[in-house]
Amino acid sequence: MNKRNAFSVRWYHSLLFRTPLLFLLLLAVLVLSLTIIMDTVGRPRLEEQSFRMANQVGNTMVAQLGERLAVAETLARALATTGATLPLKTEDHLQIIPRLIDELGPSSYIIGGGVWYDPFAFDPHRERASFFWGRNASGVLEFVADYNDPKGPGYHHEEWYVPGRFLKPGSIFWSKSYVDPHTFVPMVTCTAPIYRHDRFVGVVTVDLKLAGLEAFFDAQAKKMGGYAFAVDRNGKFLSFPDVALTRISNQNRFGRKDIEYILARDLADKRPLFAPLADALDSISNDLLQKAKQSARYDRQVAEVIARDTSEISAAEADLIAAVLQNTTLHSNEGQILLKHFTTPGDLLLQEPCSVAIFHVPNTYWNIVTVTPVSHAMSAATAIYHAVLAALIVCVSAAVIGAFLTLNNMMMRPLARITHQLKNAVDINAEEMLCLDDSFRNEFGTFAYWFNVRTRKLADALEQLRIIRGELEQRVAERTETLAHTNTKLELEVQQRRRAQQFLRRLAMLDPLTDMANRRSFDASLPSFWQRAKQKKKPLAMLLVDMDKFKQFNNAYGYQAGDQCLKKIANTMAECTQGDEVRIARFGGEQFAVILPDSDAEVAQAVAEKIRRQVEALQIPHSGEGISGVVTVSVGVASLLPTKDTHYEHLIAKTNQALYQAKSNGRNQVAVDSHMPG
């Protein structure tokens, strides 16, 4: 046997045969593995993602609808805040309320709003006091006074008004959906309470137009190949693709045509294919009601009062409203918008198996329902599955064939040498430079050469990076120090401004000479003292203390002595009227006013006499223009029991009259108003 034959290799042992065979088997295994992985993992996840995208459309609907609702809620709260502080004057309401609605309420969907006062809360002689504006066909607000007509039914028993009595300050309530009898436009009403001095005095309302919801939902539903609609907390439709199925028209007792939406349950009774959706909506409402009844905060009497006060709310609906008003949790997983997700074998409109998702709209207890054909979601997932699988097979096949051609082109030897060099370079210090063997007279030699050039440049760049990093760290440290210094300076300036503002506010309410409350502070505090006395049904007393012959004193001793005299009198009054509830103020010139809560004329007279004696006991000399003696004061006293027929201005007038009497009787004495009760 010659040596050439001794080194011959059979064809089935040759690399020329085994290498292609190996790569062919590898390709088959990879394709099979990809198919199995895509069937077991990829396809289910793609299908899940398709349904998730449909649910995302529902989340988008909730978010966009929530933006419109938030505008109405913000306007309602703004009106409630204004109603709580606005003077109870008709002209102020007619001027400010419509301006606020126009500024905060877009005319495209805010079509009305106003303030509605409880009986006799606005005016003791008016049972009905409402200030409501609605937009006309041109979008301009017009005042509507029909609700104030004594011959009309009024508004205190309306479905949107009665629950307002149970709302806490700052909270809101959404009415059920209804159709305007004049414009046939579907709408809902947002109600917020008005509280004055922690007492309920009425509500504000904002009317939100629902027209356009069908178009909005249709535009969103096209993305998922199905449709969407909305219902309120009672299950009454707010929108539906086929309006003819969900609206009914009746003729009221006045012969006028009334249009309203029906309940989801009513549609299910007529069209059984809609029953699964109605059952799901009923289940959500029942869960809410049952959870509310199990809560310690739930008060059944609230529902009874609501049902009794208005004929527009049934007992069952009153239960649900009471649950909403008492802030019971809508579902067990707080913060989640998706309430239910299920499939149906058929659908009323699409006539095929569908995936149904129910979302809740926060704060309103409305529900948005999306219906997506299962075939639509599955077709998208199947198309993606086939496209991804085909792309993977093509890519894997190309990679395997490319690897085979590369190996077949005799790359192993130079690659092995380079690998060996790299392997031996494992223990080289990171700062040392690795250079490959570039003696090959082919592309590997070129590769090694440029690799070495790149390595050297990287080494230089690494050194430059070290230098730059050090400089940057230094700059950052300097900048941080500068910012810290600037922040400290700004904080000091803010604190100084706050102290200055507090000092100015204090100066504005104090008399600079006596350091007591000035006339402005007195005028601001007297109404609150009067209101508290009225609530407590206790008398409120007032003293007016006037220094006798003060002008002569100034002429005799000078204005500086007069100022010192006023200070001593003020300090003496403070010592004589110690108490948290007593208020002393410089009323003007040489006069001081004293407010005595819960004091009748007898108590007030005793305090006044004490002040007079203590001032006289100061023994301040006074001998100007024929006067020889000491400084004295005259005191006028009055006390009133606040009623609806009296005003704090009466108290000031009576006290001033008493002071005039004390002056007329010879000064240095106390005079009590003789016409006051008790």
Q: What distance lies between the first and last C-alpha atoms, to the nearest angstrom?
A: 147 Å
CATH architecture of the largest domain: 2-Layer Sandwich
Beta content comes to 15-25%
Question: How many DSSP E strands?
Answer: 21
What is the name of the CATH class of the largest domain? Alpha Beta
| Radius of gyration over C-alpha positions, nearest whole angstrom | 44 Å
Looking at the structure, the CATH topology of the largest domain is Beta-Lactamase
Oligomer: single chain
- Uncertain runs with pLDDT below 50, 5 residues or more? none
In percent, how helical is the residue content? Answer: 40-55%
The profile of the biggest β sheet is: 7 strands, antiparallel
Give the total of domains: 3
Class derived from helix and strand content:
alpha+beta
GO molecular function, one term: diguanylate cyclase activity
Protein name: diguanylate cyclase
Enzyme class: transferase
Catalytic activity: 2 GTP = 3',3'-c-di-GMP + 2 diphosphate
